[in-house]
User: Fold this.
Amino acid sequence: MEPGKKFSIWRRRFRETALSTVVVLVSVVVGALLVAFEGRSPVAAYGTIVSSTFGSTSNIAYTLSQSSPLILVAMGLVIAFRGSFWNGGGEGQMLLGGITGVIVTYSLHVNNTPLLLLVGFVAAFIVSGAWASISGILKVLFGIDDIVSSLLLSATAAFIVFYLVRVPFASPSTATAAVLASVNIPKAAQFPSVGGISGTFPLAIAGAVVLAWVLAKTKFGFRLKVLGSNRNTAVAYFGKGPTNRLFILISFLSGGFIGMGGMAMVSAFTGNIVAGASGGAYSAGGFTNSYGFIGIAVVFLAGLDPIASIAASIFFVTLVIGGLGLLVLMAVPTSLTISISGVAILFVSARVPIMDRLKALRRPK
Amino acid sequence: MQESDLVLEGRDLSKRFADLTAVDGVSVAVRRGQITVLLGENGAGKSTYIKMLNGTLKPNSGTLYYEGQETKFGSARHAVKRKIHTIYQSFALIDLFTVKENMKLIFPDKTDDELRAMIQQYGKAVDLDERVALLPAGIKQRLEITKALGSDAKVLLMDEPTSVLAYEERDRLFKDLARLGKEKGLAILIATHKLQDVMDYCQQVAVLKGGKLVLQKPVRDTNLKELTVAMFGASEELEEAPTETKPVGETESVLEVRNLSVRGDNVPLAVKEASFSMHKGEILCIIAIAGNGQLELADAVYGLRKPLSGDVAPGPAILKTGRKLRVGRVAFASDDPVQTGLAVDLSVKDNFGVSLLDQTSKGRLVDWKALEDLSNKAIEKFEIKCYATDEFLRELSGGNIQKVLVARELSRDVDVLIAVHPARGLDMHTTYLVYRSIMEVARKGISVLLISEDVDEALYLSDRLGAMYEGRLSEIKPKGLWTRETLGSYMIGAHVMQEAKV
Assistant:
């Protein structure tokens, strides 16, 4: 051990948190410039975003509730990316989780809320997990790139869901309309809320806490980290078979959490799944709010930390909801807030190279 | 030999990288119409020297003379303009292009027939429409030579040209090079670690060892023995080697390797029917120059590579305990810790946990305290320089990163340890630290397989010893029955040449 210079893990954590905060601030400033460029007042625009998300207790409650599906999606991506399973199929997995929740709760014909929710979430977890693990298995067996396969399977999942929405589980009232919706979940399957905050929020927080504990304290979490950091090393010391099984398990759990995100969306907000609500008939974006993609930015902003992902999720949800507020109250197109998230994503991905540059500058030659 | 024969000459060239002196005041000349060989082990400074001759690297001191004039090349491209061509081990050909497309890049004005004639001039005819990726290495090399000669090269520098070739191809290459040298007055320099390349077709030889020139003469004035001694002769003084010799073969074997053949990444057969047994508390060393199949052998014994034939089985010493000899009971220190063995983006403590986790924590939870204690013990013992076990491994220096792997694998409670040149790149002090620890674990009863590239290391550490050349393992003998010279000559394939001559 080298004495003299002090090393503190807390100092490093502080530095990382500070860096993420700077990333957020920079993207907010660039967003302000965009607004000003449009000839609007950035102060008024940000005022609208803040008031429409945190302006009243009911707005706060809604923002937190809305963030719960994203937090669950983010947990799925934290597991995936820590274990180097590059899950690009969050959208499809979320959609599958949602439709599974709808079908299961609709078909059960019981009136017991805890039972419906339990069965709904477990079923969503299993179905989406199984779907995501296809990519894990393909990677292990044939070396097929997991980003590509998960992304393509996402589109496949969307088609399956649209079939289910149009044919076997189409809502009787909208069957002839241009926009097709699935049947509604029974009232008893709606997640109860307390003080306007949906119960899915504490559920998501609990999920994050459990995940944080598992990753930090268990051998599973440790092996996941090693596999994610260097696969060769994992194979050499855990064995090839166990490493492959671990990878498939990671893909399953990843899809599972994301599926729970879809179920949370259904049981707390939408109540059903609408096909082609936005962005064309085959887009899942309407139902998922693009959380499957936004989640990627969330977890990288949070440095793949489950607890930090909660804060990052709330930040991105603020932009999503605030963007709607801007549209309604100031007639500013939502593309503007999408640009702000875009800038944030850009800086998040540029974070590591920027850090390296800074380090290189500081290092004495 | 007339002075005018000197085409390219380096005088007192030196090159330092950080605190390592790769080449130290070496003067070598390349002569018109001759093949000069730069001979030396891996890391002796051959490639660095070639790169100084062709402008890729700037020497820290010394001067370059080209056709009698003091010269400085700004870059490798500059040297090519002055007709100095270099062919590296990895060819400068585009694999996805056909032969014709590759040649047209250099000679846009030549017709198909002219191209065909050019290639044929230096060897066999080649189908112009064949994709380069599908050609054997020997043909690709021939295309490179064609490219150089078609551009009227005066000097041809080749870095390890024979390492990718089969034996017959190698012979052909030298015959053609010798002919070209005479016909075109081409000056050729070949860097190699294979003694076999020197004797038949080359005129001058210069031997590098540890960046210094140790011998330079016409090939006809030297012999295999002298070159072997020059390449491997005693280096720095070693601590007194332990004199006690262990009784060998009396104990039951721990591991049996039987007729093991292993595919390589570049060659169809990297290990050819290797057989040996490992015993409790014994250090068995296999020594070879890089690229002779020893890494593939280590991988196969550990189980990272599936053998083509033959097997690795636990011996009676393991079988009678009823335990299995699985991954968890064998420690493994690979030759490239960053590639396999460590995870540089994780903390130092995490890296110790990779193979010490089950030793420190029972059940499903990680006992971080126990892991921390064991890590700190290893860090102290191997004098690893780090501020805290929470530091990322990549923040440590290269030597310390390697020490983490060695320290961890030597801290394990196992039956067998496989260590692939565990002390390479470490300073003398740390090297002895590692050596002492290896002897210590052997005394504890662990059976050690040491893969080494260093004759001194092998003779110092091993109880029994074997050498490997082109995938073939020599007889494994107690170290007392080997000398530095017999070992060295097996490593460079002198035995193959002598057999060929008989």
Observations:
- The mean pLDDT of chain B is 85.
- Chain B touches chain A through 32 residues (CB under 8 Å).
- DSSP finds 16 helices and 20 strands in chain B.
